[in-house]
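Workshop exercise sheet. Pairs work together: one partner reads the sequence aloud, the other fills in the structure field after running the prediction. Swap roles for the next sheet.
Pair: D.N. / O.F.
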Amino acid sequence: MMMDIYGIIKKPLITEKSTNLIKTDNRVTFKVALNANKDEIKKVVETIFNVTVLRVNTLRMKGKKKRVGRNVGKRPDWKKAIVTLKKGDRIEIFEGV
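Structure field:
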């Protein structure tokens, strides 16, 4: 069962490491829903951005423990998707970063 098309991809991740991946390997990084699988992520990226996806790698990121005074809490867990695009394909969000 596929969820809402815009509920799968939450936001693009623009970090120093992800910017290097774009320049060297034509791979873009997104923060995605925890229950999204690789096939859903591939279909959504191809639909929204009109590109060809070759491969999708996913990682489950554990939320960090944070402290405020003597109270200890935890940030929520999240999922990261690294999407490999076909040579020559680009996504405008990541251009000029």
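Discussion prompt: The mean pLDDT is 92. What would you look at next?
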